[in-house]
Amino acid sequence: MLEELVHQAQRGDAEAFDSLARMVGDRCLAIAVRILRDVHLAEDAVQAAFITAWTELRTLRDPSRFEPWLHRILTNACYAEARRRTRWSEGMRILPVAGTYGPDDYVTVDDRDLLERAFRRLTVQQRAVLVFHHYLGLSISEVAARTDLPVGTAKSRLHHATQALRASIEADSRATTPTQERLA
Amino acid sequence: MTASRDPDRLIHAFLFEGEEQLHDQIYDAIRAEIDQKRQRAVFGPWRMPIMNKLVPTGLGAAAVVVALVVGVQVLGLTGGGGGSPSIEPSPSPSVAPSPTPTPEGGLPEGPFVIVDGPFDFGDSGLAITVTISAQDWYGEPGGGILGKNENTDPPDGSAVIVFAGGNGWHVPGDPCDWDSTMPETPSTTVDQLVAALAAQGSRDASTPADITLDGYAGKSITLHVPDDAVFATCHEAKFCTLALPGPDPARDCYRYSQGPGQVDNLWIVDVNGQLVIFDWNGFEATPEGDLAELQAIVESATFEAR
Question: What's the pLDDT score for residue B17?
């Protein structure tokens, strides 16, 4: 089904491309939101990615690889969006808590705030590898393909991103603990 | 957060939170934009573009957004780099209606408007017409490409691609390692562009020659791809000739080769300050007659302000 739509869209069928977009758009938004940490920026990135995908679609050699190919475009769109919008705190729409879900209730409200701060301290490139690995559950080689990195670099970036996130979490924990103790 | 909690599990769980629905207005905006945006036509080893599905003549006059990527392999290609082709100016260049496709899909002999609108990298303000003097040429009016027998692939295809306008081109020093050898400054004149192409590594470039097209002066140069080039080892597996100016996303390779041994003839002219590039090419087994037709098509080019 998806491959047939890709074939049709490659022949200039905008209706088919619209159907394609609706099949994969939610996942694209989810990825972009998690990389950019802002819904508006993510929507802009997704829109830009789909426009690029439309104009470049005939360069896609294997229609079965549409989604990985699109994710690579999306990643670049996220990077571009992040470069354009460096003032993160202005006009930002904080990720909604209501209506979201997780695999479990492991993340508390305090955790969430801590992780949000920690995640924002990462570079957008670090966030991208974390999102593709942890959120989509992709292997390192698949992450590398989506981020246009050699496998070794992707592995290294994931390691450093994870370490940076852990360090940031631990630093935040150390900074908040005395206050909590005093309040207690 | 307590120290006993698993950071990896926290990260994993945290990433499963957040917006996951793209709103309808975004889909609508995407649809509205793609309805106005033309797909980049691609000649490549894997498929022909819609060369046998030519748009109606009337659409050829609409503003088009075209970007072209062609790769072909030529050995023994004649003309172009070594000679000094000269074309007499057209006394009264005029844009003729684009011909209607024949039932078989090939274009009829006669004038063909190969460029009639802006490219996505800029607008030269030019309409460019060529004359087709043989059968079995395929192209989309205004699409910037003509190919013989719907075949641009090795070992015997042939095609011409036209780029017009824009703010110049980046010519990577190394067409394989193009990403890291892209110059900061684009080539914005015929002389700069030809000099940069002549200096591009591993291309065995010909000595640039003076040409004129429709009375406009320019240069020709022939570029080769080494027979032993391994594209898979190149950045993005592309052997890159030209890239566009602009921020990194726009500096993707815009013109890349298709295979080892490829030879392209680039004829570049300055039309009232606008760079126009004709890249005509073939393959080792391309019939000489096809190449002669191709060269004649390029030499017939006329330019007119839209």
Answer: 80
Separation between Cα atoms, residue B21 and residue B11, nearest integer Å: 21
Q: How crowded is residue B233: how many other Cβ atoms within 10 Å of its Cβ?
A: 10
Identify from A106, A109, A124, A147 which residue to disrupt to test chain B contact, counting B C-beta atoms within 10 A and taking the largest count. A106
A65-83 confidence digits (pLDDT tens): 899 999 999 999 999 888 8
Domain map (residue ranges) of chain B: 38-305
User: Do residues B268 and B275 lie in contact, with contact meaning Cβ atoms separated by under 8 Å?
Assistant: yes
Kindly report the backbone phi and psi dihedral angles of residue B165, in degrees, each rounded to the nearest multiple of 5, phi listed first. Answer: 90, -165
Tell me whether 0.85 is exceeded by the ipTM. no
DSSP string, B124-151: --EEEEEEE-SS-EE--TTSSEEEETT-
| Domains of chain A with CATH codes | 1-85 (1.10.1740.10), 103-184 (1.10.10.10)
What's the distance, CA B190 to chain centroid? 17
Q: 3-class SS at B52?
A: coil
Q: Report yes or no: A165 at the B interface, CB cutoff 8 Å.
A: yes
A121, A139 Cβ separation under 8 angstroms: no
Which string of DSSP letters, residue by residue, matches B148-208?
ETT--STTT-EEEEEEE-SS-BB--SSSSSTTTS--SSPB-SHHHHHHHHHHSTT--PPPP
The burial class, CB within 10 Å (0-12 / 13-18 / 19+), for B296 is middle
Instruction: Say yes or no for a CB contact (<8 Å) between A80 and B42.
Output: no
